[in-house]
Here is the input.
Amino acid sequence: MSDSYSRHSRQNFETVAIHAGNTADPLTGAVVPPIYQVSTYKQDGVGGLRGGYEYSRSANPTRTALEENLAALEGGSRGLAFASGLAAEDCLLRTLLGPGDHVVIPNDAYGGTFRLFDKVVSRWGVDWSVADTSDPESVRAALTDRTKAIWVETPSNPLLGITDIAVLAQIAREAGVRLVVDNTFASPYLQQPLALGADVVVHSMTKYMGGHSDVVGGALVVGDAALGEELAYHQNAMGAVAGPFDAWLVLRGIKTLAVRMDRHSENATRVTEMLSRHARVTHVLYPGLPEHPGHEIAAKQMKAFGGMVSFRVAGGEEAAVEVCNRARLFTLGESLGGVESLIEHPGRMTHASVAGSALEVPADLVRLSVGIESADDLLADLQQALGS
Here is the structure.
């Protein structure tokens, strides 16, 4: 485990989120880590580095503070901060895989992740196949003697599917492969995959970790220190690191992660209750609903059910697009996880890249990122957008 995690291991999440990696500045006593907007560092003689810093691609004190915080929050040995979630995924895949290797990917995943596998990774001679990761036997059947990793999103994007992390971790161990869990929708406050047996946790820090729609970033957290060293080597070699101001913004966002996720989850529950009763809504996808097929597993491995909600609209694709266009308080836009509520049509927006594939999403699907505004105001906006 990281030193930061060891120091904070007996503290509750809310305390760790505020204090891990956030050491008072030794020069001034500033309680917030400075933004070290610097590219290079004075050396005390050739090779005489102060604190290990020589060039900010390799390491930067503001990024170090964030990486220590990430490791502590996920209970890992190493956290690494990247310029975007896809940059983190790219580094991970190029570290774990080589020509001829195979990966099992989920049948419900972020469109950008699918594009990375389908259009980029495949050009390196890496093969992939799709499995329903909510069904352990589907994952077993997809494994080959060339498989090096199982990739999971839970909850998934945009259909809010749930995967039993502990069960898949056991399958991965038996097969001698790595289990990678994209924890973006849940955040480490609601779910900690490493504690359930996963090998690598992936985050788009753009989403709930930053939480204010003002920063783009990605993260990897691992339990195995040796794998952490490999990833750090590749991160430095490829260079897609988080800048110091971006790292500072994410650190600021994480301090309120717990209280924000509580409110996101509370508001999403109110939204799903209304949508479930609405005549124009044919199906609501949210793991907090008792009828959701993954509800029991989600209740077991998550603290609450998060702020993401998807639903299907009577009338097909055009009706779903109309709902998106009629929303006023819910902003029509891509991304998720900010304090403001967002609405989108995945088939034409975030998941356009999966059209025609096994990951294609229903045309009548609407995805909500439920923010932390007044729930009453959010309900009123959805009701008028649905035409009631």
